[in-house]
Write a structure and sequence with these properties.
alpha/beta; Ferredoxin-NADP_redctase_2; oxidoreductase; single chain; flavoprotein; NAD(P)/FAD-dependent oxidoreductase; binds flavin-adenine dinucleotide; FAD/NAD-bd_sf; 348 residues
Length: 348
């Protein structure tokens, strides 16, 4: 059935299959890559717009290192896994929702003719392939649009024991976990140029803060003087490791053997956008490697959108990822309506 033939008052869906049809092979409206708060929130909005939606999720959320997530209104302190479970249940309650436990391997554009033949009236479409994980089957979808909500992978400073304290004593999101560290002796560990700004942010929670640059020249002398003026010291010597007893962090050991007592703090990972599945498609990235979009959420590949931590300014919070997921879903829906009618892209 063609997409335009669906656009009658009795059938509000503009996807090429009716809501309620359950054929797994039927073309879909949007393939969403990533089932975190950004992808799930977008998915919920789009199934509620009578779209046939598939979420492919590899189940590796960045915040799986932590036991409690903070600051999500009505769910402050909830476990991140519980949040995802609730989100998935709400999405899957709709008949046009499909959730695949799969790692997306490949996104390839359809030719104009193939897209039209699939029932996509604006001639834009994609084939999305994923490998099943945890025993799930491999999947393949033909979709009008793609939404990348794959979050970020992170690389912590190369210290042998740092993972043991990450998500408990050491965190990366100051807004998420600063409150619990109020007035404690803290470390900020990182090697990137935004360390100064992060130190200022952490100073809201504790003035007993030492910034460890691990030998990197990332804080300028005038910034060091500004930090010193509010009691924050910069430690430039290389770090050997984090030390502690069981789950309790006790300090930062420098390469020269000195241990500086600290009970926790923040680390600045290096973030990577996992978009290998886009292959050679011309996906613009910024200097940090994040996926660039216009203000509607569309990337430099027509028909491919992105949202959540993977887009600038980078990692924020669950509620922001979810909110932006809903915002971009509305733009995607309008893009498909306008594409079906040939009335241009931009809202008037
Ligand atoms: C340790 C830690 C603690 C945090 N604590 C808080 C907190 O307390 N409060 C708060 O508000 N925020 C917190 N955050 C930040 C929050 O987790 C993120 O801002 C939020 O999860 C971003 O949502 P997202 O949907 O963009 O990405 P994610 O939640 O990372 O979800 C992305 C999903 O995409 C999947 N994926 C990736 N690649 C593929 C692929 N190729 N195919 C299929 N699926 C793929 C991943 O497996 C993952 O499930 C924390 C982050 C960390 C690291």
């Amino acid at each position: 059935m063609s997409e335009l033939s669906q656009a009658s008052p009795s059938e509000p869906s503009q996807d090429p299959a009716s809501p309620g049809e359950s054929s797994e092979d039927a073309p879909i409206g949007v393939a969403i890559i990533g089932g975190g708060p950004a992808g799930l929130s977008a998915g919920l909005q789009l199934v509620r717009a009578n779209r046939r939606i598939a979420i492919l999720d590899s189940n590796r959320p960045r915040h799986s290192a932590t036991l409690r997530s903070h600051g999500f209104l009505t769910r402050d302190g909830a476990s991140p896994l519980e949040l995802r479970r609730l989100g998935r249940e709400e999405f899957e309650a709709y008949p046009t929702a499909q959730f695949a436990q799969a790692m997306t391997r490949e996104v390839t554009p359809l030719s104009h003719e193939a897209a039209v033949a699939a029932g996509f009236p604006d001639g834009i479409g994609f084939r999305v392939r994923g490998s099943g994980i945890r025993g799930a089957a491999d999947v393949e979808f033909v979709a009008r649009r793609v939404l990348i909500a794959a979050g970020l992978t992170e690389e912590l400073p190369a210290l042998p024991m740092i993972r043991a304290y990450y998500g408990t004593a050491l965190h990366s999101c100051v807004e998420c976990d600063g409150f619990e560290k109020t007035s404690k002796p803290l470390a900020l560990i990182g090697e990137t140029s935004d360390l100064f700004a992060r130190a200022l942010l952490i100073s809201r929670f504790s003035s007993d803060l030492i910034v460890f640059t691990n030998g990197a020249e990332t804080i300028r002398p005038e910034q060091e003087a500004q930090l010193a003026a509010i009691g924050i010291r910069v430690e430039r010597r290389p770090i050997d490791d984090i030390v502690g007893e069981k789950a309790e962090m006790l300090g930062v050991r420098l390469a020269d053997g000195e241990v500086i007592p600290r009970v926790g703090g923040f680390v600045r990972p290096r973030w990577h956008a996992p978009v290998e599945f886009m292959g050679e498609l011309p996906l613009e990235r910024d200097d940090w490697g994040l996926v660039v979009t216009d203000d509607r959420g569309e990337t430099t590949v027509r028909g491919v959108y992105a949202v959540g931590d993977i887009v600038p300014p980078g990692p924020q919070q669950l509620i922001i990822a979810a909110g932006n997921g809903a915002r971009v879903a509305a733009k995607l829906n309008m893009d498909m309506i306008r594409g079906a009618l040939g009335v241009g892209l931009v809202d008037e």
